[in-house]
Amino acid sequence: MKAKKLVCVVDDDQSVRRGLGRLFKSAGYAAETFASAEDYLAREIFEGPICLVLDVRMPGLNGLGLQEALETRGACEQIVFITGHGDVPTATRAMKSGAVDFLTKPFDDEELIEAVKRALERAQEQLRKRRGRREARGLVDKLTPREFDVFRFVILGLLNKQIAAELHTAEKTIKVHRGRVMQKLRVTSVPDLVRISQRAGVAPARDAAED
Amino acid sequence: MFLIVMSVPLLLLAGLIEERSKGATTLREREERISLAAESANLAFWSINFERKESWMSDKGRAIFNFRPDEGLSRELFLSRVHPEDRNAVDEAIERARASSQTFEFEYRLLRPDGDIRWLISRGRYVSNDDGGVRELIGVAIDITAQVRADLQLDLQREEMARMSRVSSMGELTASLAHELNQPLTAIASNAAAGRRFLAQGPPETKVFEELLADVAADARRAGDIIHGIHHFVRKGEGTRRPINLNEIVREVLRLLHSDLLGRGTAVETELAPSLPVVDANPVQLQQVLLNLLMNSLEAMQSTSAAKRRIVISTTCEANSSVAVSVRDYGNGLPAGDVDKVFSHFYSTKPNGMGMGLTIVRSIVEAHGGKLRAENVGEGARFFFTLPVTRKPETREVA
Lengths: 211, 399
Known about the structure:
- The complex is a heterodimer.
- Chain A has nine helices and five strands.
- Chain A has helices at 14-26, 37-42, 63-73, 88-96, 109-140, 145-154, 160-166, 171-184, 190-200, and strands at 6-10, 30-34, 50-55, 78-83, 101-104.
- The radius of gyration of chain A is 23 Å and the shape is elongated.
- The N and C termini of chain A lie far apart (49 Å).
- Chain B has helices at residues 2-21, 27-41, 59-65, 75-81, 84-100, 145-200, 206-234, 246-263, 283-300, 357-367; strands spanning 43-49, 54-57, 103-111, 117-128, 134-143, 242-244, 267-271, 279-281, 310-318, 322-329, 371-376, 381-388.
- By secondary structure, chain B is of the alpha+beta class.
- Chain A binds chain B through residues 13, 15-16, 18-20, 22-23, 25-27, 57-59, 62, 82, 84-85, 105-107, 109, and chain B through 175, 178-179, 182-191, 193-198, 201, 212, 215, 218-219, 222, 259, 262-263, 267.
């Protein structure tokens, strides 16, 4: 079951919610509307890509507040802000915190839909990355502590002999460990190993520059 | 006020006439003395003796009415000087007084030959002889033109000041109003764009389009209402009072301030009386009163922590005779000591305040027959005003 792309409108003004909801449906997206940031946070977490269209000014938690809350929640919703008065400091803050766009009401529908499209692409890209990271981490988690150490020296670019010296063991033992690491991480070359380490966020045993 | 001023001269005049009938030698002196006093007070004394067919008027009086020094006084001559629009009413008042032998008093305008209009109050009475017939008519007139003009000027100034203050509150509200207007405009634009896209995708669903167009129409109306509200608010010279419910005024003003309140992160709670008797008032001016009080509260809470920042507006009815509106904030409170000082001209605790807001608020409330007060309560301050309830026309009981 592939999750559809979802656009969520959060605005305290009912007319705006209805109008925007219709606009996104007419552009072929699934659209949901929420009267407040709190209402949106109460929604069950959606697995697919989400673009949030957020009013900056709202009673209760405002747009920037929701942006922060989502960040701590670790979600990958992408946000397009809309506002009645695009003051520069607010826009700057929103964009610095990773908003896709900041539009001033009333805006051109093409411009908004374009921004939403970009946001959804970014959300999808982020989901893909996250899936890759989860997969890679899942594989790395299967390594034994010793294999993990060897893994971190291999991606540093050391030869078996050097690793053996580092870990005070025989070169033959290292060779066996390295074989198991390649097998468990389902790769056949060192470059692939490096890629997986990057996806899983595993750092080499020490900074390469120290050598 | 004029009544008091004028009763004294009338007594003096009665005394003077007594003296005159005794043929006292000091009469001339007394007349002069009174004339002197009259001149400085813009007063005219006069008398007409019907038995002796004599009349007299102080020099100042002759100057005011533009009578020649030797001209004999008569009701006709007097009426010829009265402004044509006031002539009938004055004539009738004199006639009523003659018929009932009572004192008359009326305010009227004098039209002088040079076209100058002067405002006067005349007070007089018929003096009877022993047989009950009319012996004499005595009276006094005071020229109140200067006061009337000053009052008119004051009204104009007050009106202009109130308008200026509205215009400046409008300035503060511009951002808020732009936001208010943007909402329906955004909705209309979005609906129109959605409609176009739906059409491009094939024959439209009637029901979807019906709803869409109904929304567009409603939002266009909403935008119109907002513009109408602004226009109404800054328009000059509206002075009509009508029976209004203060709860409505509270709601309208909160709608106007909606976005501003959000921007300042201030919660507003309302405790409105479920049913309020109507008051006779100028709705635009009352909006201004409430707007000013709210702005005042907002500014008083600028240094209040966001969690505590709130305003409570309540309306209550007191003994069915007056309606009270209270605006309570959780700010720094009023300066200790004379709390009423905040109502005086040019008094301001704000760095860029003109100190006019509350003065105007008070003058509007008082012009409506109400009272405005301020007090410190716990944390923060409370401003409240009362307005008298409109009396219902008395219903006669059917026997």
